[in-house]
Structures are given as C-alpha cells and as structure tokens.
C-alpha cells in the first residue's frame, strides 16, 4: 500500500498577509539588481549615509571583540551604553533624572519602534500618523492589530500636521501619535512651538507619544528640538533614537527607546522572547560613538556639512522647474517632490520612468501614502545627487510639468 501525502499550499498567516515588502528597501534592491546587470544606476532610493563609519568607532568594535565581547549581553543592552543614553537624555529633560532602567537597546531604531508599537497598542486602538511618514510606521501599527490613521499634512507648511489636524482626525479610540522631526520622507523640521502644541494636545488626551528622533542631529537651521526639551510630562512619552544615521552606522543595527520604567520592562520582556540583545560588538561600537564626544562631534559636523552642501545644490537645481512643488528640506537627507502630471501620471509611474529610462532610483510617494510625490535621498555622492536631480527635473519637464 502506498501512502499519499497532500502538500498544503503556503498561504501567509493573517498576522502578515496584508504586508508588502518595505518600499524603501525594495527600491535599493532593484537598483542593486540593475547595477549587477551592468546598468549605471544612481541609487537615490535608500536612506543610508554614503559615508563610512568613522574609524575610531570601528577600532572600538575591534578592541571589544578582542576583549571577548562576543557573547550574549543583557537583553536590554550593556549597562554602560544604557547609562550614557540615559545621561544624555537626562541633560535634555527638566524633570527627575532618567535612569538606565528606562532604556532598552535593540537591533536598530526600526526594532525599537516596532517593539514600542507592539507593547503599547492593540485591537481597537487607533494611532495617528502624520502623513507622509516613513512607510514602516503604518505596518508596525497594523502588525500590533491597531488601526493606523493617516493625517495628511499641510502642503503650504512642509506637509507638516498641526495639533488641530490631529484633533480633527482623533476619536475616543485614539491611543497614540507618531512624531518624526526631522521627517522621513519630507526633510521638514517641526519648530519648537509646533511640537509643543502637539504635545499639549497629546497630554490633554492622554495619548502615547512615540517620537522617532533618528534624524535629529541632521538639520540645517540649528539643532532640531527633541520632545524631551519640550514635553511637560514623560509618563506617556517614548523617544526612539539610534546611531544609524548621524554616525553612519546603519549596518551595525543599534537603536534604543527611552520610555517609562514599566513600558521599558514590558519591551525588554518582548525582546527577550524575540531577538534578545543587539549584537555585542555593535553595542560597544555605539558606546564609543556616544562617549568619545570629541571625535564623534567632529565626524558628525563633517557629514552634516556635506549633507547641507548637497541640500543647497539640490534646491538650486530645482529652480530650473519653478512649477515643480517640493518641501524645502531643512533636515534629514531627503527631497520630497510632487511630480504628478496629466501626461506622466503619478509618483509611481514617474519613479518607474526615472529608473528605467534615466537610471536614477527614487522611492514613489505611494509608500508614504502620498502617491503624487516621490522621495529622493541625497545620502549619495554629491555629483550623483546633482545628476539625479537634473534628470528628475528633465523628466518632469518632458511630461509638460
Ligand atoms: N529608513 C531608511 C529609509 O527610509 C532605510 C530603509 C528602511 O529601513 O526603510 O530609506
């Protein structure tokens, strides 16, 4: 007698069936694939600094490995790293000293954001997301079984939202709001008064405030404010940060949250069942980045000055197409432009045409719930950025824009 087995076809579980691959990552993968075929693609898709990690940080990681930092660490991270993060946060906060027990180090600010959403939100909750926002916020909220609520920003004000916009989109089920200044994908920076107004509303409504401050060190009109500088309370505040962008350490995967102790404990428990600690050598590298302030500040100012020069060059190039609407980039390293035309279609069609015909990879704004727009990252060599923007302008003009 022969036994027959029936193979059941794979179908993703309801946990993930709604997910599509991250568009920001997919664009870079496509650019890499085209480059592998010999095409000379300029990749302005990924939000990843083109600078190498500073030498003093790399050497610290090597020393840590030699000294045996190759084992598990505490799930929440090595104590000296948590302590320095807490001390730096305390310096911004007017209230009681922030302690290491309120810091959880993870495998990048992306994991910190996810863990915060998963810990705080659930079925029946609504979370306000100023839109456009980074593509993964919406999915992280949805993975937490809560409902992401897009709140479209004001095109007259850098696509930023105000407290009034958030208020209008809120319901009794609103449980929290995501903030991100400087903003990915627009490069807009919220002023202190804009942020304060939003924090006051959140305070009044008892919303959780998740503030993603990964781009805070990269701003061109002075330091961008942290919610820690402005909030009157911290018991509903989660600050998410990391070393990836300002220290050119994307691949090291180190991010963290600063959150009230009970929230941090719950996030630590979640992490203890999923990924455990972030890579030990990477934690030592991040510790060096945060404690060797002299070297770190030198490196950051060189990188930010270069981003600033590229920003100025881009804005200059955009002047060739006066009808091409864009958010004036004040921070991060993104240019966000409304490229929709009757002839060329929306941002998705535009990005496809720019890649296939002009070999420049950018991210369609559909990834950020604003389909007429596109995001261009200027974290790439200056001449490539300028060429990329020139081709974008030419394509827009060829569509009669
Ligand atoms: N956050 C960066 C971006 O928006 C890196 C890619 C990703 O993790 O989404 O391009």
CATH superfamily of the largest domain: Type I PLP-dependent aspartate aminotransferase-like (Major domain)
DSSP helix fraction: 40-55%
Radius of gyration (CA) equals 22 Å
Number of strands: 13
CATH-scheme architecture of the largest domain: 3-Layer(aba) Sandwich
How is the largest sheet built, in terms of strand order? 2-8-7-6-5-3-4
CATH topology of the largest domain: Aspartate Aminotransferase, domain 2
Order of helices and strands: HEHHEHEHEHEHEHEEHHHEEHEEEH
Helix segment count? Answer: 13
- Main sheet? 7 strands, mixed
Terminal CA distance: 72 Å
Strand content: 5-15%
Number of domains: 2
Shape descriptor: globular
Bound ligand species: glutamic acid
Structural class, from helix and strand content? alpha/beta
Low-confidence stretches: none
Give a written overview of the molecule:
The protein has 13 helices and 13 strands. The protein is of the alpha/beta class. It has two domains: 131 residues, Aspartate Aminotransferase, domain 1; 222 residues, Type I PLP-dependent aspartate aminotransferase-like (Major domain) (Aspartate Aminotransferase, domain 2). The model has no long low-confidence stretch (mean pLDDT 96). Bound molecules: glutamic acid. The site of glutamic acid has 10 residues, from helix 1.
């Amino acid at each position: 007698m022969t036994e027959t087995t029936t193979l059941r076809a794979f179908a993703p579980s309801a946990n993930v069936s709604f997910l599509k691959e991250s568009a920001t990552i997919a664009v870079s993968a496509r650019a890499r694939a085209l480059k592998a075929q010999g095409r000379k693609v300029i990749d302005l898709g990924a939000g990843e600094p083109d600078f190498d990690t500073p030498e003093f940080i790399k050497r610290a990681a090597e020393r840590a490995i030699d000294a045996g930092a190759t084992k598990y660490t505490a799930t929440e991270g090595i104590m000296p790293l948590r302590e320095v993060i807490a001390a730096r946060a305390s310096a911004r906060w007017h209230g009681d000293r922030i302690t290491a027990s309120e810091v959880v180090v993870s495998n990048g600010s992306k994991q910190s954001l996810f863990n915060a959403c998963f810990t705080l939100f659930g079925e029946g909750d609504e979370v306000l997301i100023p839109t456009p926002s980074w593509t993964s916020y919406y999915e992280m909220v949805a993975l937490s079984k809560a409902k992401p609520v897009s709140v479209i920003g004001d095109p007259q004000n850098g696509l930023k939202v105000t407290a009034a916009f958030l208020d209008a989109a809120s319901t009794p089920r609103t449980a929290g709001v995501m903030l991100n200044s400087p903003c990915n994908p627009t490069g807009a920076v919220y002023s202190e008064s804009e942020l304060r107004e939003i924090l006051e509303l959140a305070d009044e409504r008892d919303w959780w405030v998740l503030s993603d401050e990964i781009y805070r060190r990269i701003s061109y009109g002075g330091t961008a404010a942290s919610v820690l500088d402005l909030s009157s309370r911290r018991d509903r505040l989660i600050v998410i940060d990391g070393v990836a962008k300002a220290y050119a350490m994307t691949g090291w995967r180190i991010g963290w949250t600063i959150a009230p102790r009970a929230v941090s404990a719950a996030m630590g428990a979640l992490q203890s069942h999923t990924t455990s600690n972030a890579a030990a050598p990477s934690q030592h590298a991040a510790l060096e980045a945060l404690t060797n302030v002299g070297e770190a500040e030198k490196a950051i100012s060189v990188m930010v000055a270069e981003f600033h020069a590229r920003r100025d060059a881009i804005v200059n190039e955009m002047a060739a197409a006066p009808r091409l609407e864009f958010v004036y980039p004040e921070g991060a390293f993104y240019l966000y432009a409304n490229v929709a035309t009757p002839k060329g279609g929306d941002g998705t069609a535009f990005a496809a045409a720019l890649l296939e015909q002009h070999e420049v990879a950018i991210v369609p704004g559909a990834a950020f719930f604003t389909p007429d727009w596109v995001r261009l990252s200027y974290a790439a060599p200056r001449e490539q950025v300028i060429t990329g923007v020139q081709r974008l302008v030419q394509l827009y003009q060829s569509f009669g824009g």
